[in-house]
Design brief:
It contains 4 helices and 7 strands. By secondary structure, it is α+β, with helices and mostly antiparallel strands.
């Protein structure tokens, strides 16, 4: 696993976050037309959410996670194409406050098979599904570990 550090996002991170969000969604949701995604989508979609970033040894943005803290709902988790399959997503999850002590939920589009496989490998399980504006999704949950 490459050296990455996880920290809360700062206003200085916004330009790189916007670009990563745009680029990774165009790749992940390849069935959507490219103009379905805009550079300023991140700002509108993360109002009131806590964001953490992963940065590599060269201080390049490797990924980010956005959390609706009140209900432990993971709204976004994206890793740059250059850092995928290197453990960055796992590190972002494990850095969440209360990880392993609170259940966390997220929605994942059923068409996004790589993301579903990733979340299952991290211990998430399906607790429901639905149909949203972007398509059919699974509601996934990572259950808190019992403490002795």
């Amino acid at each position: 696993m490459p050296a990455v550090s996880i920290r809360p996002a700062t206003p200085a991170d916004q330009p790189a976050l916007r670009q990563l969000f745009l680029t990774t969604r165009r790749i992940a949701f390849h069935w959507q037309p490219p103009d379905a995604f805009q550079l300023d989508d991140l700002d509108a979609q993360t109002v009131g959410e806590a964001l953490w970033v992963a940065v590599d040894a060269q201080q390049r943005l490797a990924g980010f996670i956005a959390l609706q803290e009140a209900d432990h709902f993971i709204h976004h988790l994206f890793v740059s194409p250059d850092h995928q399959r290197l453990g960055v997503g796992q590190r972002l999850l494990q850095a969440l406050p209360g990880w392993g002590h609170h259940p966390f939920q997220l929605k994942c589009l059923q068409r996004n098979q790589p993301a579903l496989a990733f979340y299952q490998a991290q211990g998430f399980h399906k607790v429901g599904n639905g149909d949203g504006p972007d398509g059919v999704y699974d509601l996934l949950e990572h259950t808190a570990r019992a403490t002795a």
